[in-house]
């Protein structure tokens, strides 16, 4: 990994602001992801009510992602970014005032709307602000910035909830508001790169139909959905399929830390080699990791080494494929279709996380956690085959770039 390449990305206008905004916003999300459901339980909600908190968050996120383009056209990039940070952060203060389920659901819906804005704008900005030939490196750095809060806060959540009062922890979800000093500069930097003048012949490139773009990026989106389903299943049910809280925390740390590093490293790698072999290798890695997790969960004596190894392998694939699929999707779609690509990729990520949790929960109820992970491993093996034999999608006819 070239330090010079990383430095060139960091010197690109807007990139430092993007990393700062992303880190603050995702810190607020990662902190409350496990804490808000626990706050609802403390107020008397049952397990369904606690699960409903996360469901409302993801639903509001997806709905907001579909509205980001209209928002950008109406109020511009700086105000849209500020709106996303405020919606993601300020409702946490209101949520800390009441543990009633309805209040938590309403404030969570507002936070989901903010998160939807931040995710679409962040992915689009990473591609738009990247120096020429360094799109993968920019996406990898952005991925690292938004993954590190999860590495720090997800495994620490049980300790925080056992040490501090829940209202105080919920109030700390206001962290995204701290990103406001950087949203204006970031928004202006993106507008400077995306509001390019017409070509010399006076023509302006228009986005392709959404269905056309989705056909081009179907394969990377499918791979993303499946690997995030596996990752989401582990993040949701780690306390249930591990033998002790310490092992659950260690396993989550192994998954999230490896994913963060892989997301960064594979972003850099995407600028140097073709994405298909890397995608196939990472999908095979996920397949092996899921198989090891299935064997470890089934073992009566609790095969700790096999479990942690499986989580490390899955973490590498989970993080690496996030960067690889995003870079590949942007390349296949074309610069004029960045917004549609960003929305589709983020919806695929969120849908995969939710579907994976649902699928593993149903499998555990009908059979065992081991059976659920085994099925996921088989699906990932089929994914490897599909990546290898699939024809390379055509990005369409060459188009004049909209960027300077």
Describe this structure in words.
The structure is a single chain. The protein is mostly helical and 404 residues long. The protein has two domains: 1-195, Growth Hormone, Chain: A; 208-391, Up-down Bundle (Growth Hormone, Chain: A), CATH 1.20.1250.20. Helices cover 79% and strands 0% of the residues. The protein is built from 16 helices and no strands. It has helices spanning 3-10, 15-42, 47-65, 68-95, 101-129, 135-153, 157-163, 166-171, 180-194, 210-216, 218-241, 245-270, 275-298, 304-333, 338-366, 369-389. Helix 4 crosses helix 5 and helix 6 packs antiparallel against helix 12. It is globular, with a radius of gyration of 21 Å. The two termini are 27 Å apart. 53% of the residues are buried.
How would you summarize what this structure contains?
This protein is mainly α and 404 residues long. 79% of the residues lie in helices and 0% in strands.
Tag the structure with descriptive keywords.
404 residues; mainly alpha; Growth Hormone, Chain: A; globular
Mean pLDDT across residues? 88
Assign the CATH superfamily of the largest domain. MFS general substrate transporter like domains
3D shape: globular
Sheet/helix structural class: mainly alpha
How many β-strands, per DSSP?
0
Residues in helices, as a percent range: over 70%
Contiguous helical run count: 16
Write the layout of secondary structure elements.
Elements: H1 3-10, H2 15-42, H3 47-65, H4 68-95, H5 101-129, H6 135-153, H7 157-163, H8 166-171, H9 180-194, H10 210-216, H11 218-241, H12 245-270, H13 275-298, H14 304-333, H15 338-366, H16 369-389
């Amino acid at each position: 990994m070239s330090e010079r390449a990383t430095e060139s990305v960091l010197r690109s206008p807007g990139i430092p602001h993007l990393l700062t905004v992303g880190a603050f916003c995702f810190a607020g999300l990662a902190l409350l992801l496990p804490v808000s459901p626990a706050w609802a339980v403390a107020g008397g909600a049952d397990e369904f009510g606690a699960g409903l908190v996360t469901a409302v968050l993801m639903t509001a996120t997806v709905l907001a992602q579909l509205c980001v383009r209209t928002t950008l056209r109406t109020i511009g990039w700086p105000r849209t970014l500020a709106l996303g940070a405020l919606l993601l952060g300020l409702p946490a203060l209101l949520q800390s005032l009441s543990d009633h389920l309805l209040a938590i659901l309403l404030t969570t819906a507002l936070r989901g709307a903010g998160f939807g804005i931040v995710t679409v704008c962040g992915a689009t900005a990473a591609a738009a602000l990247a120096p020429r030939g360094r799109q993968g490196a920019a996406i990898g750095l952005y991925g690292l910035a938004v993954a590190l809060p999860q590495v720090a806060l997800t495994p620490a959540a049980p300790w925080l909830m056992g040490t501090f009062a829940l209202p105080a922890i919920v109030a700390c979800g206001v962290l995204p508001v701290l990103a406001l000093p950087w949203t204006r500069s970031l928004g202006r930097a993106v507008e400077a790169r995306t509001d390019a003048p017409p070509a010399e012949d006076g023509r302006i490139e228009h986005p392709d139909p959404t269905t056309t773009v989705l056909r081009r990026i179907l394969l990377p989106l499918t791979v993303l959905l499946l690997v995030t389903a596996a990752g989401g299943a582990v993040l949701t049910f780690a306390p249930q399929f591990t033998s002790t809280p310490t092992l659950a925390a260690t396993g989550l740390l192994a998954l999230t830390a490896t994913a963060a590093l892989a997301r960064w490293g594979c972003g850099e790698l995407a600028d140097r080699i073709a994405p298909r072999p890397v995608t196939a290798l990472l999908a095979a890695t996920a397949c092996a990791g899921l198989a090891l997790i299935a064997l470890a969960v089934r073992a009566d004596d609790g095969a700790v080494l096999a479990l942690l190894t499986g989580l490390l392998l899955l973490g590498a694939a989970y993080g690496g494929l996030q960067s690889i699929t995003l870079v590949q999707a942007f390349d296949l779609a074309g610069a004029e279709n960045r917004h549609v690509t960003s929305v589709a990729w983020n919806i695929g990520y969120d849908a995969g996380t939710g579907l994976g949790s649902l699928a593993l929960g149903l499998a555990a109820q009908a059979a065992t956690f081991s059976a659920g992970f085994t099925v996921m491993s088989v699906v990932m093996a089929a994914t490897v085959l599909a990546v290898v034999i699939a024809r390379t999608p055509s990005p369409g006819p060459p188009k004049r770039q909209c960027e300077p």
